[in-house]
């Protein structure tokens, strides 16, 4: 859930994309490297969609790799002879590596371009999955998922950087949402195709086949991806590249970057934590549903995510004024939905309410992309990758806090060493959702005053 997250960062060509929320600088202001006019505008059109399609194929592949363990949890527990706690380590480690890699990946995209970063990402995804296919013990399998997480982290920022170089600024929010929607398509491939292949073909052949998909995607990117439209040469000498530390400091000092991080943090983590780890146990153990029925409800999370992605993309492409209303509405409705669910007498809400909160959480991933739009529109082109990486860390940090907090509370609320948890334990453990929600909301309200009001 990059929401698959997921999860699901942009850059124009050699020009600064004007933020609709900012007023024009005075005519007498001296030109800076960040404000020099571009030799040409992003063209859009068929060539832009072709470049984006090639790039997004890597992101779809990454989501397939990322979510592959979600349909293989029981098989992994049997293959590696591990319990639920050790099994959850796979998910937490992947999220940790993904989050930790965001700033380094942003710097790499700024320095070497998205095409090279995508090619390295494909290699890491394939090598990690291939090692996982042949692992027969816990430690090597865990290491292989860390490698896979590194490759996954290189995809989303790179794809959105390509999109921002090819599309006019007004289209970037829509393209970002379409990128996230494409990632949800990868999630569906995992749920429908990979689950069946694992059942019929077995562990090693299935995961080996996924790893080999990378060969075809690598060839597609290497042969056909043009990361930026061709344009007339620029006569002026290029500005010297700032030091890495300076690049990070300048990105962080921009209030739009920090606002983007907290928007991403606050909106993404509820749906991400539910879909990644705690949703199935909650529905099965706390609500008494079968695994098949719980899996069907979780599929609604994917379809809801796709629908909200299209809706938010259309709204944001029309006006930047929709950013903050979308964010605050999603936070308020998600908070209210969980409050009603957790407060239901006996801890067993009716099916219609469970369906409702899952559909509401489908808005979390698309809303988190508004944070990346803040980072894109408030930073100059030469540090867009870095700023996007900082913002993209937010939701995954929130997810780790939530995964860990719920797990600790479940253990604390369940005496003894039983294999399951009660509905009451889940009810109180899920109240932990409000700790990061409150923190993030306070930071959003504080920082929005420092960011220019949308035009």
- How many strand units? 0
CATH class: Mainly Alpha
Structural class: mainly alpha
Determine the mean pLDDT: 83
What is the CA-CA span between the terminal residues? 31 Å
CATH architecture group name: Up-down Bundle
Figure out the total of helices. 18
Gyration radius over CA: 22 Å
Question: Outline of this structure?
Answer:
This protein is mainly α and 455 residues long. It has 18 helices and no strands. Mean pLDDT is 83; it is low at 1-39 and 233-237.
Fold and architecture overview:
The chain has 455 residues and is mostly helical. It has one domain (2-19, 43-228, 244-447): Up-down Bundle (Growth Hormone, Chain: A). It is built from 18 helices and no strands. The protein has helices spanning 2-5, 45-67, 73-80, 84-112, 114-134, 138-153, 156-166, 172-201, 203-224, 244-253, 255-286, 291-318, 323-343, 351-361, 364-377, 384-413, 423-429, 434-447. α11 packs parallel to α13. The longest helix has 32 residues, at 255-286. It is globular and about 65 Å long. The two termini are 31 Å apart. Mean pLDDT is 83; it is low at 1-39 and 233-237.
Key terms:
0% strand; disordered N terminus; 18 helices; 455 residues; single chain; Growth Hormone, Chain: A; mainly alpha
